[in-house]
Amino acid sequence: MSAESMSAEEAEEFRARCRAFLDEHATGIHLGGDPDPRGEKRLLAGKLFQQALADAGLAGLTYPKEYGGQGLTKEHERIWREEYGKYPNMTFELVISHGMCLPMLNQFGTHEQKAKYLADNIAARTVWCQMFSEPGAGSDVASLQTKAVRDGDTWVLNGQKVWTTLAHVSDYGVVIARTDPNVAKHAGISMFVVPMDSPGIEIRPIHQIDGGMHFNEVFFTDVSIPLDNLLGDLNNGWNMATAMLMYERVAIGSGSTGGIQHERADQLIEEATRRGKISDPVIRQKLMRLYALETAQSLVSMRTRAALQAGKAPGPGGSIGKLSGTLIMNFARDVSMEIVGADSVAWDHDSGSIWSRSALTGLQGGIAGGTNEIQKNIIGDRVLGLPRDISVDKGVPFKDLKVGTQLG
Ligand SMILES: Cc1cc2nc3c(=O)[nH]c(=O)nc-3n(C[C@H](O)[C@H](O)[C@H](O)COP(=O)(O)OP(=O)(O)OC[C@H]3O[C@@H](n4cnc5c(N)ncnc54)[C@H](O)[C@@H]3O)c2cc1C
Questions:
Q1: Which residue, 170, 195, 222, 225, is most buried by CB atoms nearer than 10 A?
Q2: Which residue among 97, 163, 361 has the greatest number of ligand 1 atoms within 8 angstroms of its CB, and so is best to mutate?
Q3: Active-site residue, 248 included
C-alpha cells in the first residue's frame, strides 16, 4: 500500500487504532519515588510497552513483515508518531536500540542477519547498545584502538569502550573495531554485532554525579565472535559509523514522536504557576522564548522526519536538530533553576528532586551523540560548504599515528 493509496477513512481508522492502544498502554512510567539509578525499571516499562505494541500489530510499522515488522507505509508511521507525541514517552530507554541499531541492521544486514535479529529487536525482546567511544577516541572516533583480528572461523576482539549507554542491560552491541592498522585511520575500521554475554566481556558501571549508573566501561579480552557477525563490508566501518551517527542525531534531535511539542515549556509553566512566579515579567518572557524555541525545534524535526519518510537517508542536516535540541535543553535548565531556586541545587542523596537531577544532567545533551562543537563543524563543512578543518593525518597509516596508547 502506498501513501497515496491510503484513503482518508483508512487513515482515520488507523489513527483510532493507535489512540486506543495508547490510551490503554501509554500511561506514563511510574517508579513510586524510586530513583532507578541504573534505568532498569524504566527500561522494563519500555520493553513491556513495546511487546504489547508488537502483539497489537503496531510495532516496526515500516519494517518488512518477514522480519517482524508490519510492512506498512511511511504515512502509517507519521500518523503513529503524531498520536504517540500526545502521550507520555514510554520508550525513551529504547532510543539506541530502535533509533540507531535497528535502522543499521535493516540497512546493512544480510538476509540472515535480519532474519536473526530484527523481529526480536522490534518487539524489544532484545535490547541493543552502541559501542563506539573509547578513552582516546570520542569526537575523533576514527582513532579507535579496539581491534578485531581474524582467527580461523572467528573474529577476536581486544580493547576498551567507554560511555556505553545501557551496556549492562543490553543483549547485543554494535561495535566498531580496527581491522587494518596499515591503512589510514578511517579506512581500516569494521562494524560487528557482539552478543553482550560473550566470554571475555567485562562491563563496569560509571557512577554519575546525579547518582545514576546509566553508562559503562566495556572491556574486551579475547572476545571471540563468529565471522558472520561482521555487519556490512570489511573495512567499510567508517562509512557505516557515520550513517549510524546520522541516525543517532536524528533520534536524539528529532525525538521518537511527532507533531509540535513544547514539553519543557509546559512543565515549567506549571511549575512557575505552582510557585507563584508566573506573573513575573522576566520569567514570563523566558518561558515564552522556550515555548517558541521548542515549537521551532518541532518544525525542524518534522522536516527531518518528512525527508526520512520520503526515503532519504539522514544527512548532515540532522546535526541542526541535534544542536538546537541541546541548546534548548541548556536554556530550559537555566530557566528551571531560576524558577525553582534552591530546589535545583539542594541535594537529597536518597532521591534528589527532579529539578536537582535536571540541573546536574541537563548538560549531557551537548556531549552525547557528538558534542556541540562537532555538530557546528559538521554544519559548517557539510551543510554550509565552508572550508574543512585542517587534517594533519590524512593518508597516514593508523599504526604510525600518535593517538591513544600510541602516543608514547
Ligand atoms: C549521556 C551520554 C551517553 C553516551 N552514550 C554513548 C554510547 O552509548 N555509546 C558510545 O559509543 N558513546 C557514548 N557517549 C560518548 C560520546 O559520544 C562522547 O562523549 C562524545 O563523542 C565526545 O567524546 P569525548 O568524551 O571523548 O570528548 P573529546 O572528543 O575528548 O572532546 C573534548 C572537548 O574537545 C572538543 N573538541 C574535540 N574535537 C574537536 C574539534 N575537532 N573541533 C572543535 N572542538 C573539538 C569537544 O567539543 C569537547 O568540548 C555518551 C556520552 C554521554 C555524555
A1: 170
A2: 163
A3: yes
pTM for the model:
0.92
Residue 135 CA: nearest ligand 1 atom is: 26
For atom 32 of ligand 1, the residue with the nearest CA is 139
Secondary structure string (H, E, C) spanning the chain = CCCCCCCHHHHHHHHHHHHHHHHHHCCCCCCCCCCCCCCHHHHHHHHHHHHHHHHCCCCCCCCCHHHCCCCCCHHHHHHHHHHHCCCCCCCHHHHHHHHHHHHHHHHHCCHHHHHHHHHHHHCCCCCEEEECCECCECCCHHHCCCEEEEECCEEEEEEEEEEEECHHHCCEEEEEEECCCCCECCCCEEEEEEECCCCCEEEEECCCCCCCCCEEEEEEEEEEEEHHHEECCCCCHHHHHHHHHHHHHHHHHHCCCCCCCCHHHHHHHHHHHHCCCCCCHHHHHHHHHHHHHHHHHHHHHHHHHHHHHCCCCCCCCHHHHHHHHHHHHHHHHHHHHHHHHHHHCCCCCCCCCHHHHHHHHCCHHHCCCCCHHHHHHHHHHHHCCCCCCCCCCCCCEHHHCCCHHHCC
Q: What is the pLDDT of residues 143-194, one digit of tens each?
A: 999 999 999 999 999 999 999 999 999 999 999 999 999 999 999 999 999 9
Nearest CA to ligand 1 atom 9: 164
